[in-house]
């Protein structure tokens, strides 16, 4: 506990340099905010939430912020009476209804999408997908982020051409029904020490239940692929 408190104090001191929050277990015990205390930057376009709640990217109105503003943004689950900061997929259990394959993929992508990955604990992950499949749905309806990301060179935020992914032996995400939920298989790039270009590619198998129960069933790290010149990167201020 003492070590965890030390990490929390150090994090507050260097908060302007953080890309995400919640790596310490104490962070998940924070008090709920009033919805009016959250300045919303973007509300995620998702279909799996229960009718009385919303997922938003925003910041606490009561905190003094600096530059870049992205260092102070978080993912919040907002209902009529409270806003809770989301640090992991497991915190959404019971608050969602996963009905379709599309719901299942959108749900697990929360922790690995270019617009939301930084709100979850490290090591950071980004799903690898062909540029042809990259659209505004992947950014949860954030048109501004989509326009920025689609103009970046291949390798940024897990996006590359189909030909490059075929050369690497990578396949797009697949989803299949299973007992009480869905199984998702997809390639992701893992940043071993934060989003600084140090990365490896793995295949992950995940399961999500209809109520949002989440499990990672396996991750293949046996064959670290030759990247054939692709360098997986993110922008420092996003």
What does this structure look like?
With 238 residues, the protein is an alpha+beta fold. The protein is 15% helix and 27% strand. The protein has helices at 2-13, 101-109, 143-150, 162-167, and strands at residues 38-43, 53-60, 74-79, 83-85, 125-127, 129-130, 159-160, 174-178, 181-191, 199-209, 214-220. Strands 5, 8, 9, 10 and 11 form a five-stranded antiparallel β-sheet that branches. Strands 1-2-3-4 form a four-stranded antiparallel β-sheet, with no helix packed on it. Strands 6-7 form a two-stranded parallel ribbon. β9 and β10 (199-209) form a beta hairpin.
Poorly predicted regions are 1-29
**What separation lies between the terminal Cα atoms?**
31 Å
Strand content: 25-35%
Which structural class is indicated by helix and strand composition?
alpha+beta
The level of helicity is 10-25%
Instruction: Give the rounded overall mean pLDDT.
Output: 82
Task: Output the helix-strand order.
Answer: HEEEEHEEHEHEEEE
Main beta-sheet strand count, sense and barrel state: 5 strands, antiparallel
Integer-rounded radius of gyration: 18 Å
Helix segment tally? 4
**Could you tell me the number of beta strands?**
11
| Anisotropy-based shape | globular
List keywords for this structure.
single chain, 238 residues, alpha+beta, four-stranded antiparallel sheet, 15% helix, disordered N terminus
């Amino acid at each position: 506990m003492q070590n965890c408190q030390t990490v929390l104090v150090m994090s507050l001191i260097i908060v302007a340099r953080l890309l995400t929050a919640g790596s310490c277990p104490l962070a998940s015990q924070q008090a709920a905010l009033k919805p009016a205390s959250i300045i919303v930057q973007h509300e995620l376009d998702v279909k799996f939430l229960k009718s009385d709640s919303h997922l938003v990217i925003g910041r606490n109105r009561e905190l003094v912020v600096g530059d870049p503003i992205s260092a102070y943004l978080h993912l919040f689950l907002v209902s009529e009476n409270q806003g809770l900061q989301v640090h992991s997929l497991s915190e959404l259990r019971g608050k969602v209804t996963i009905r379709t394959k599309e719901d299942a993929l959108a749900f697990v992508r929360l922790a690995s999408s270019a617009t939301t990955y930084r709100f979850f604990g490290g090591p950071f992950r980004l799903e690898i997908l062909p540029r042809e499949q990259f659209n505004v749905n992947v950014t949860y309806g954030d048109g501004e982020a989509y326009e920025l990301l689609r103009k970046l060179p291949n390798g940024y935020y897990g996006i590359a051409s189909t030909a490059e992914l075929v050369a690497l032996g990578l396949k797009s995400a697949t989803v299949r029904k299973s007992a009480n939920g869905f199984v998702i298989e997809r390639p992701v790039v893992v940043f071993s020490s934060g989003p600084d270009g140090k990365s490896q590619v793995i295949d992950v198998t995940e399961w999500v239940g209809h109520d949002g129960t989440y499990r990672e069933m396996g991750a293949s790290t046996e064959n670290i692929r030759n990247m054939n010149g692709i360098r997986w990167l993110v922008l420092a201020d996003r």
